[in-house]
Write a structure and sequence with these properties.
The complex is a heterodimer of chains A (317) and B (264).
Chain A lengths: L5 E16 L6 E16 L4 E5 L5 H9 L6 E6 L9 H5 L1 E5 L11 H5 L1 H6 L3 H15 L14 H13 L5 E5 L7 H18 L2 E6 L2 H7 L2 E6 L2 E7 H8 L1 E7 L3 H11 L2 E3 L2 E7 L3 H11 L4 E6 L2 H10 L2
Parallel strand pairs in A: 3-7, 3-8, 5-6, 6-7
Antiparallel strand pairs in A: 1-2, 1-4, 8-9, 10-12, 10-13, 11-12
Chain B lengths: L1 H17 L1 H7 L1 H19 L9 H17 L6 H9 L2 H5 L5 H31 L9 H26 L9 H14 L11 H7 L3 H5 L1 H8 L4 H32 L5
Classes of the chains: A alpha/beta (317), B mainly alpha (264).
Chain lengths: 317, 264
């Protein structure tokens, strides 16, 4: 694999020193391991999602990959560069968006603030206007461009900040909680926009999020982090398929029958009701067996949603 | 990359215009102490006294110059930098292909330039109102020397400000630095009184501090008290301070980045 087209981490640790007591003379500190020896390689041909609970190490990982923070130990290479050295050539090829952190000037019209991007990265005004038109169309932005950020809603501001992060069309963009605090429509728009930029401009996104749909809708690959460790790294669809389950809720006439079904097929009994959890490939077979062997009053079939699957993976750890 | 700093300068200028009321009103901060100083000087000389070896006209020019340059070459902590470090705004700057130092240098001085234009107007009005028919006699040579010194003093003033501001890497709150300097600087820089009228021992120390090169010396040069030999030795001293703070700031930045928490 071309090392200039990949993200590579080898036994990376990141510790923070945190003050645990306030004292004029002798404050005490303790070390917290935010990242615990993680190793992985990812090709930037596809987007990468980073999922995990609060404090799992997602944002720390993004900061290590962008070079904002140095690792305590281990090796990191992104696009062939050591991020922490923050070489100019590296910085030209990346973009960063941190949800809830402003980078644009609040008091002047957004378009003037966005234009700073072309001064920073040195591209022409024509390119700037073209990209702005394309991005605005994809994000459904109109006259807001001529308003100062201070007069915009959170969603509008978020769109502007997001645009600014990759108007220079970098190879790799890091998005840290891009949809945090946004309504479902805006979240959906942003996800479509990310996919549009990936397909149209070949930008690879590394997305850290609490929101499962950000990962499943935009990222072919994903990492699940828990307490600084990697629980899973690989194909997002494979992960979903492997852990996909159907829930069959069966109503029968008696508790005895419910218990008998539970003994044979597993599941939880609740009065005259049994809830079975099956892998999706077995669902049809099990329903056929139940209907042919028992007197079933009625049953409901529900497929677990992606959020439940990710939640369970984290809970099981 | 220079196009970035030009673009940034233009944006900062636009931003400054948004706060024009604040800008205009803040000139009262210059006008009031300057008026006091000029009235006091007039009163002292009208009663037959003299401040050091200064003639009244030269002292008036000194005060006007000191007021303007002390605004332009003010040192302290800049809340933009302090906040970037404290709240993690520095993250964005670190990953962009420009120098954080020069980025702030441009923003800082563009705002100062706008301010200085108004400050000169205010100083001129004060001079006309409170100093009667006094017309300052500034020699072209003094102006040239002043311009050369200003070109070196500007980076020195900002370098000290940058140095003080990045102490935010090590302290949770750096407001105390600005408060302390706000009280101390007018005395030690020569803003309230020319440094040569202080007692000899104190004077010896004060005229070698970096603050003297930012207010006292530029104002003295404008009054026209320097020949080229004196001027060049002055320039060498400023350059030495510049190198000293450059090294100190580089070390502090390097160490600060190591412990930077990148909050957020």
């Amino acid at each position: 694999m071309d090392y200039k087209k990949q993200i590579e981490l080898k036994a990376v640790y990141k510790n923070y020193r945190v003050k645990t007591s306030v004292s004029i003379f002798k404050p005490t500190y303790k070390e917290i391991e935010a990242i615990r020896g993680i190793t992985f390689t990812h090709s930037i041909t596809e987007n990468l999602g980073i999922f995990g609970k609060n404090g799992a190490g997602k944002t720390t990982l993004i900061k290590l990959l962008t070079g904002i923070l140095p690792p305590t130990s281990g090796e990191i290479k992104v696009l062939g560069f050591i991020p922490y050295k923050l070489r100019k050539e590296f910085k030209k090829q990346i973009g960063l968006f941190q949800g809830g952190k402003e980078q644009l000037i609040w008091d002047i019209p957004a378009i003037q603030s966005l234009e700073l991007s072309r001064f920073i990265y040195g591209y022409s005004k024509d390119d700037f206007l073209q990209r702005l038109a394309d991005f605005s169309k994809a994000l459904d932005i109109g006259d807001e461009l001529n308003q100062p950020l201070r007069n915009m809603s959170l969603g509008q501001r978020c769109k502007m900040e997001l645009m600014f992060s990759f108007l220079h069309l970098p190879r790799l963009v890091f998005l840290d909680e891009p949809t945090s605090g946004l309504d479902i429509i805006t979240r959906s728009n942003l996800r479509s926009f990310i996919n549009f930029c990936h397909q149209q401009y070949g930008i690879c996104f590394v997305i850290s999020s609490h929101n499962v749909k950000d990962i499943t809708d935009c990222c072919k690959s994903c990492i699940i982090l828990d307490k600084g460790n990697i629980l899973y790294q690989g194909d997002t669809y494979y992960l979903l398929e492997k852990n996909q389950r159907d829930l069959i809720t069966i109503n029968v006439d008696s508790e005895n029958l419910a218990s008998e079904i539970s003994r044979k097929f597993g599941g939880k009994v609740n009065g005259n009701q049994v809830v079975l959890e099956t892998s999706i490939s077995d669902t049809n077979e099990i329903i056929n067996q139940l209907l042919s062997q028992y007197n079933i009053n009625d049953f409901q079939l529900k497929r677990k949603d992606t959020e439940d699957i990710f939640t369970e993976i984290l809970k099981n750890e | 990359m220079s196009s970035y700093y030009i673009g940034l300068g233009k944006q900062t200028l636009k931003q400054a215009m948004v706060y024009r009321t604040n800008f205009i009103l803040s000139f009262l901060v210059i006008l009031i102490p300057l008026t006091g100083e000029l009235l006091l000087a007039k009163f002292v000389y009208a009663n037959g006294y003299q401040i050091g070896t200064w003639q009244l006209n030269n002292l008036i020019l000194y005060y006007i110059s000191a007021t303007v340059v002390s605004e332009f070459f003010a040192i302290g902590t800049w809340w933009d930098i302090g906040n970037d470090i404290k709240y993690g705004g520095l993250n964005y700057h670190l990953i962009r292909p420009y120098s954080y130092f020069w980025h702030n240098f441009v923003s800082y001085y563009v705002l100062k330039l706008v301010y200085i234009v108004f400050a000169i107007i205010v100083a001129y009005i004060a001079m006309v109102i409170f100093s009667g028919n006094f017309i300052p006699n500034i020699y072209p040579l003094s102006l040239l020397q002043f311009a050369i010194l200003a070109l070196i003093a500007a980076p020195l003033a900002f370098l000290i400000t940058f140095f003080l501001s990045i102490l935010a890497f090590f302290f949770t709150d750096i407001d105390f630095i600005s408060k302390m300097l706000g009280i101390l600087l007018p005395f030690i820089s020569g803003n309230i009184l020319p440094l040569d009228i202080f007692p000899a021992t104190i004077q010896k120390v004060l005229i070698k501090l970096p603050s003297a090169y930012l207010v006292y010396y530029p104002s003295c040069i404008l009054v026209g008290n320097y020949d080229w030999k004196e001027f060049f030795s002055l320039i060498i001293e400023v350059l030495l301070w510049l190198i000293f703070f450059w090294i100190l700031t580089s070390i502090l930045w390097f160490r600060g980045r190591k412990i930077y928490e990148a909050i957020g």
